[in-house]
Amino acid sequence: MSVACVLDETMAAAVRELRVGEDQYRYVGDTAFNLADSLRDPMSEAMAVLDDDRVVGFYRLDFAPNAVAGRPMHAPSVGLRAFVIEHDQQGRGLGTQAMVACCADLRRRHPDRALLVLTVNCNNHPAIAAYRKVGFVDTGELYQGGSAGPQHLMYFPLH
Ligand SMILES: CC(C)(COP(=O)(O)OP(=O)(O)OC[C@H]1O[C@@H](n2cnc3c(N)ncnc32)[C@H](O)[C@@H]1OP(=O)(O)O)[C@@H](O)C(=O)NCCC(=O)NCCS
User: Fold this and answer.
1) Average pLDDT of span 47-64
2) Ligand 1 atom with least separation from CA of 127
3) Contacts for 131-137: CB closer than 8 Å, 24+ residues apart
4) Residues in domain N-acetyltransferase (predicted)?
């Protein structure tokens, strides 16, 4: 069972050690960099994914209105960025569970936010399948700002 929580310094050290497959870095970048970037930003929250108290993943919640899509959405939103599950823990259902936990956490701590929004590279088929499985909806809009090519813009209704 995986849970999502705002990370402390011990968890941050473990997050810096997270690795993905060689072919996955183009989609998510380096997690130690993403963590530092997130901790520097007053509009972001750095989140750890835990499985039995062990850090197995990371994501960033970005509360800036233009986060993710480069423009405000049609309802108050929060961006999901830099989501990773440790490479040797992928495919066990942890990513799906983490997203369910993320939505529950947002409803509890940020009930004003109506949408969880993300972009995902059009070639990142495992991630697209994982987001669909959780219930994310594809807007049908392509975001062209990604460094590795066009991205689908997807959202999850929190209310
Ligand atoms: C995307 C990611 C977070 C998913 O986490 P995960 O723990 O592997 O996902 P789950 O085990 O919960 O799998 C959920 C669904 O995703 C799909 N999926 C996961 N791994 C897959 C793979 N290697 N190939 C195809 N589909 C896959 C399946 O539909 C799966 O459902 P199923 O097991 O019922 O078939 C993880 O693969 C990851 O960290 N990838 C690298 C970084 C990345 O691309 N992040 C997303 C940036 S937008």
Assistant:
1) 97
2) 1
3) 131/99, 133/96, 134/96, 134/99, 134/100, 134/103
4) 4-159
d(CA 116, CA 154): 8
Angle subtended at Cα 143 by Cα 107 and Cα 24, rounded to the nearest 5 degrees: 80
Q: What is the pLDDT of residues 97-112, one digit of tens each?
A: 999 999 999 999 999 9
* Residue that has been written with the tokens 């939103």 in this structure: 77
SS3 state of residue 151: strand
Instruction: Output the pLDDT for position 1.
Output: 67
Cα of 126 from ligand 1 centre, angstroms = 5
Range of the structural domain that residue 153 is part of: 2-157
CATH number at residue 27: 3.40.630.30
Query: What mean pLDDT is reported for the chain?
Result: 96
Please give the pLDDT value at position 118: 97
Which ligand 1 atom is at minimum distance from the Cα of 96?
12
Asked whether 85 and 49 are in contact (CB, 8 A), the reply is yes
